[in-house]
Every structure is written in structure tokens, then in C-alpha cells.
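User: I'm putting together a teaching handout on how multi-component assemblies are represented. Below are the sequence lines for each component of a complex, exactly as they appear in our records. Could you produce the 3D structure of the whole assembly as C-alpha cells, so the students can see both representations side by side? Please keep the chain order the same as the input.
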Amino acid sequence: MKAVMMYKPKDLRVEDVPEPKPKDGEALVKVMGCGVCGSDIPRINRYGAYFAPIIPGHEFSGVIVETGREVRDFKNGDRVTVAPLIPCHKCEWCGRGLYSLCSSYDYFGSRRHGAMAEYVAVPEANLLKLSDNVDYIDAATTDPCANALHGLAQSKLQPGETFLAYGAGPIGLFALQVARVHGAARLITVDIGEKKIEVAKKYGVDIVIDASKEDPAEVIKKETGGRMADAVIDFTGAPPAQKKAINCAGKMARVVLLGISHSGLSLDEHEVDSIMRGQISVIGSWNSFTQPFPGNDWFESLKLFSEGKISSKHMISHKLALDDAPDIFRKIDAGGLFFNKVMFLPHGENFG
Ligand SMILES: [Zn+2]
Ligand SMILES: [Zn+2]
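Assistant: Of course. Below is the structure of the complete assembly, with chains in the same order as your input.
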């Protein structure tokens, strides 16, 4: 089968490799969609993974074409999405059902071969069936959507509140859509550049701020009569944005750090003071895996897709073949390319 192999950072090769054989309790999934996660970009362009060569990719959907022995609830032809984390089921955190916090987990695309390939073998516990009306592309974005739901739960967003998504990438755009479903009175997002702004507007976000042109805190102050945002999630992981996100939070607000950061954050005395005097909570959110595995954020995401309340439609910037992988990661690394969710379609767009 065809697969994208990462030999080392910035060294991707599309190769012909043996098709995986499903072991007992596993099913072979024909990959119909595999999204590029924000975490894949530094993994592929800077840091590498846990071994090499490795097939990257952990946000995927497909159809079952073979089942190993002991697979009970799935059969050939079942359309599925896949939870990428495989918990150890031995540590304290697994025992408490907090699988995202597992101390020795396995993970598609970073600790075992992933889904930038034509086929991948998946343990039955990681499979989720799709309703007929959920397409493979929405299904391949279930992981970022579940992350958005998890972040929203950490933010304790209440109906009638103002929600700010700092960063309008895929997870931010899902959070905004779900915040609307949860009854947020006002949706605000901040990003940089016209194309990102355009996409956020397509999702009906009330206030879309281009931070390269306006100061988000000033705009939000004016729009909220000085009350600022009640629930804020930073999806960028970039220290300057994290600082601004904190500056946009009102009294008793919850600020959730969700975007992966690769550098430190320093706060000045005014920022620390506003956290203290405003009784602002700064909270972390990591992944989406809870009991019963893979967790309610996954079941809820699939339900929202099936009810037509959320969609990945406007956030997919590229639909590519596996052969395009080396080139797109080179272009991303070179900078200047507009992209949002990049989606590989290993078998093309004919999903029939
Ligand atoms: Zn991801
Ligand atoms: Zn564990």
C-alpha cells in the first residue's frame, strides 16, 4: 500500500509498504480521510516522533475492510472514525477514567504508525461507528472537534455568556459552533489575516477581530460595555496571543490554555493583578479522552455532526493525495501559505 513515511524531520517519502494485517481484536480500516493536526506540523518539520521511519497522522476516518479474530461489534463495510489514543489501562489516571492523562499511552502517528496511508489496523475499542449522514471528511475532524468540546467544558461556559475563541483554526471554529449550540449569547474570535477572518465569518461568529489591525482587548471592551469575555480559550499556544487572551477576560472569567505551546509565557504586574483582582481562573485543557472510552466529547461530536449543528465544511483548505504530502509540509515550513485544515484523501474523493 501507499504510505507517507517520515525518516526524520523534513524528510517525508511516499513509499510502497506492506499492508498492515489486523491482529486479534483489531480491524483493518481503509483510510478515507486523514487531517493534518496542528501538532503534526512541528512533529514533521521540527521534532520528529518516537521512532523513525514512522507513518504520521492521527485524525482519520474510513471503512472497515477486514476484521481480526475477537472483533465483536464491527464488520466489513462499517464506516468509522478512530480515537487516536490507546490508554495503558494500568496507571492511576486510567483507573480514574481520565485517559488523556495516562502516563504511558500509545498514539497513532507519533508512537505507532498512523493514517497517512491507504490502510491502518485499529483496536476495536478505538473505533466509533458513523451515522449514514456523517461524511468521511467531517468524521476525520472528530478529534479536533472533541478537543474543542473538552476545552469548552473546562471553560464552564454558561448560556448567555460571552465566549472568546483566541485563534480561528479548526479547533477554535468547532468551539465557536458548539458554544452557539450551548447557548452562548455572543461569539468572538481573534486571528490574523483576511482569509482566516473570512472563514470565521462563514461560521456566523458575531465579532471577528483581525489582531494585525485592531487591539482585541479594546474592541471587546467597547462591544461588551467593559464587561469583557466570560469564557476564553487560547487555541494558538503563542505567548503573545496567550497574554492578549488573558487581557480579554472579564471578572470571574475562565481562561483555558488549549493550544500547544513551545515557548514560555511571561505576565507583567498588571496582568497578574487582573487575574487576582478579577478572580480569573487560568485552566489547562488536554485532549478529550475520558470514561467510557473514548469519552463523551467524542459521542457528542458525532451527534452534533449527525444533527447538522456543526460542520467542517468551511475549514477544509486543502484536499490532497498522499503523494502531495512532502510538498505541502515543505510549503507550510517555508511560510506564507494560507492553510486551515489540510485533509488527505488516500483513496480520492469517490467515497461510494
Ligand atoms: Zn490532533
Ligand atoms: Zn494509563
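A couple of points students might notice: Residues 87-88, 90-91, 93-94, 102-104 surround zinc ion (ligand 2) (CB under 6 Å). The longest strand covers residues 26-35.
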